[in-house]
Amino acid sequence: MSFGNNLIQWYLENDRDLPWRKSKDPYVIWLSEIMLQQTRVAQGLPYFLSFIKHFPTVFDLANAPEAKVLKLWQGLGYYSRARNLHFTAKYVANECNGIFPGTYKDLLKLKGVGDYTASAIASICYQEPVAVVDGNVYRVLARYLGIATPINTTKGIKEFKAVAQELLEPSEPGNYNQALMDFGALHCKPQNPLCSTCIFSESCVAFRSHQVKELPVKEKKLKVKKRYFNYLVVDTEKEATVLEERKGKGIWQGLYQFPLVEGKGEVSEEELLQSARFQELVHHKEVSVSLFNEKAVVHKLSHQHLYTNFWIVNTPSVTEETISWNEVKQKPVPVLIDKFLKEYLKEEL
Asked: Among 35, 78, 104, 291, which one is most buried in terms of CB atoms within 10 A?
């Protein structure tokens, strides 16, 4: 029996009971695949169920305000995925009459859809024989075939795609792709893989050569950048604060935050009071400033670590438009700020 047939047989006996597995609707598959990129199933599942509840069709998602989409996405990270999701929903709804492209090649033309997502939709929904390659697939193939080419290089990406395509079971591409991803997630795990009960143990190169822990290979990551954020959490006598939308193409575009003072290192209270942002925000003489957190909150992103302080600014008034704390709760915010709000507003009650 071939690798593909063995894998599919394993899948039919061990597949996970996931809501999107019950559908061949490209909208449902697209939504699940976009959400699960760089996200564990356990984390992504509640978000998927929430999105399907609020946006049962691509038209519902297309017609939703971006702020609502970002709010429901809050906590998943990589917010550009949410914005691309919304953009593509509007394109499919308005330009394609709600019908997703029916081939791998045409799916690739959609914003936010790369090789992996296009392959998943094409194979699962349209039975097109195109192989998916994600983190689970890299791991299974690297170990099974003993491939030491780094998976995060151009050479590695091309090599693994070609190998995955060669091993693909063309008669059942959808089941094969889902089987390979499930096998990596449930059996050939990153840590403590179940090698002793593996159906491929006799033919797995890594297992026979004692290289399971060494594969797959990844080149060293880029150096992590440190940034120092100081949020000015205004609290007025009218129980209002100031919130601003993040603009530009940096992190958290379209999300909301408190006025920000970013420093090259830790900022003292005196330096904060002298900063241009504080000076333009607060003109009132009756103002008190206190640090909410005892030490900087470290929020880790893929290529940067944010050392963050929340400064409570009690003042009768400010120079900018304010909103009530209840309104703040409705705005999409980064997880970093959401966690602060839960602590701060609990203290305020």
From this structure: 35
CA distances from 78 to 35, 108, 120, 168, 314 (A): 10, 20, 20, 30, 33
CB 36 within 8 A of CB 44: yes
Which residues carry out catalysis?
A: 33
Residue whose token pair is 């050479």: 155
* CATH superfamily label, 225-348: Nucleoside Triphosphate Pyrophosphohydrolase (3.90.79.10)
Predicted local confidence at residue 1, as pLDDT: 59
pLDDT in tens, 233-289: 999 888 899 999 998 878 898 899 999 999 999 999 999 999 999 999 998 778 899
* pLDDT higher than 80, residue 69: yes
Ranges of each domain in the chain: 3-214, 225-348
Residue 349: predicted pLDDT: 44
Euclidean distance between CA atoms 193 and 316, whole angstroms: 59
Helices within 63-111 (DSSP H only) = 66-73, 79-95, 104-107
Question: What does 103-129 look like in DSSP terms, one character per residue?
Answer: SHHHHTTSTT--HHHHHHHHHHHH---
Question: CA 129: distance to chain centroid?
Answer: 27
DSSP H or E stretch at residue 44: helix 41-54
Same fold, 3-214 and 225-348: no
Cα–Cα distance, 149 to 158 (Å, whole number): 10
> 102 with 111: CB under 8 angstroms?
no
Which CATH architecture describes the domain 3-214? Orthogonal Bundle (1.10)
Q: What does the block give as tokens for 325?
A: 């704390």
pLDDT in tens, 17-55: 899 988 999 999 999 999 998 888 899 999 999 999 999
Confidence of residue 121 (pLDDT cuts 50, 70, 90): very high
- DSSP string for residues in 254-281: T-EE--EEEESS---HHHHHHSHHHHHH
